[in-house]
Amino acid sequence: MKKKSKSTASMLPLANHEKDLLDRIKRTTQEYNLNNVTRTKAYLDFYLRHPEVKWAFLGHMVSRNGGWNMTDLKGEFLPRLMAKKERNLFFNFLERGNWLIFQDVYPQFLLYEEGLRQGRPLFHLCTSINVSTFMETIWNEFWRSKDTYLLAIALVINEQSYLEKRVVRNPHYQKDVLNKFEFMLQDWLSFNHILFPNGARNMVGQTLHQFESLRERILLGKRLYSILFENQEVYRDVFKWARTHPHTGSRKDYWPHVFNNVNEGTPGFPYQLRLKACQLRAGARKIYSPTVENAWKNVNQPEAEQGDWFDDWRVVEYLTENGESLDGEIKHEYCKTLERLELATLAKKAITF
Predict the structure, then answer these.
(1) What is the largest CA-CA distance in the chain?
(2) How far, in Å, CA of 62 to CA of 106, rounded?
(3) The pLDDT value given to residue 344
(4) pLDDT band at 82 (very low <50, low <70, confident <90, very high)
(5) How far apart are CA 125 and CA 144, in angstroms?
(6) Which DSSP helix (H) or strand (E) runs through 168?
(7) For residue 97, what are the contacts with CB-CB under 8 A and spacing of at least 6?
(8) Distances in Å between the alpha carbon of 308 and those of 1, 52, 103, 242, 346?
(9) Backbone phi and psi for residue 248, each to the nearest 5 degrees, phi listed first
(10) Cβ contact 146:152 at 8 Å
(11) Angle 119-107-168 (CA atoms, 0-180°, nearest 5)?
(12) How far apart, in Å, are the Cα atoms of 47 and each of 113, 129, 267, 347?
């Protein structure tokens, strides 16, 4: 990695069968990269086939949160607090990141899967599908060592680094989204909560406080991995919940006692207080949370920006295990966020920029 050297094989002309394989991988990736729902399902389906690739399940759960964030923009609270233009800008920001990660990582999964079928590693083809030299090295090491932690955390590093210039440092998103929404991300909305429902109206997770920090996003990914996989009881419950609750993007997926994907409210009437300690008050209507596919149309994304993010070998320091034990308690904090949103909506306190 220090030399950032590509394998000799990756510099050779592609054989026809390799070109055919890469074309199939590209078509399959495009097929599943339609929207947040199709991506999220594809991650889980791959994990069910290859549970050794633990990032696939972590990615599935985080992608569910991306869908919930998208539908919040058309749900009960935010249309009352944000102008339509700002909500559209924020959706485009979320959708671009969700799309970019999938189009980068899913071809890697398919290349690994085809290598298993053929009984030999095919990672010399990584550069032909614009995968970082960092991940080419990691996949080859994983093929040899079967180190599931190494692969999962390397994918966390890769995907967050991949987004850094393309989304987080992109001048368009800096100006129109991040500079405007920083206050809301930190103090108002649930966008910075990553929730892993685990049944019985309960959940675990983490909160990100510095979205614009690459280091903090990577460390968050490591903490989420620890919460999801280090406690077998937590893993079992979250996995069971994910298997039995198909992702729609509506928060009804995990709290049907509070949310509904049908709007029970009456248009034009002022908002009335409905929540108390994350429970509906007696006689209160449920909070509207639509599905992704009812809230937003599919977006035709431009091609991903070219270039390999890997230019500093010291990112390997993130690969070491922290050894910290996390319980992931987040329900109380999430309930407080919902209360703040409801009070702001009740007061019609529009968030201005």
Answers:
(1) 69
(2) 15
(3) 84
(4) confident
(5) 17
(6) none
(7) 66, 163, 167
(8) 13, 26, 15, 33, 47
(9) -120, -20
(10) no
(11) 145
(12) 11, 21, 42, 44
Write the DSSP string, 106-157: HHHHHHHHHHHHHTS--GGGGGGGT--HHHHHHHHHHHHH--HHHHHHHHHH
Amino acid, res. 41:
K
Radius of gyration of the chain (CA): 21
pLDDT at 352 over 90: no
State both tokens at 310: 């890997």
Q: Is 265 exposed, middle or buried (0-12, 13-18, 19+ CB in 10 A)?
A: middle
Q: Of the candidates 262, 295, 248, which has an alpha carbon nearest to the alpha carbon of residue 91?
A: 295
Residues 190, 197: Cα–Cα separation, whole Å = 15
The half-sphere exposure of 181 on its side-chain side, counting CA atoms within 13 A, is 29
Q: Of 2, 113, 115, 105, which Cα lies nearest the Cα of 60?
A: 105
Nearest to 271 by CA among 190, 352, 338, 342: 342
Count of CB atoms situated within 10 Å of the CB of 197: 22
The stretches of the chain forming alpha helices (DSSP H) are 8-11, 16-32, 36-49, 55-72, 78-81, 84-118, 133-145, 148-163, 171-173, 179-187, 214-229, 232-244, 292-295, 331-346
Mean pLDDT of all residues in 10-16: 79
* Distance separating alpha carbons of residues 195 and 191, to the nearest angstrom: 10
pLDDT greater than 80 at residue 63:
yes
CB under 8 Å to 111, separation ≥6 — which residues?
A: 25, 122, 123, 125, 126, 129, 139
Kindly report the pTM of this predicted structure: 0.93
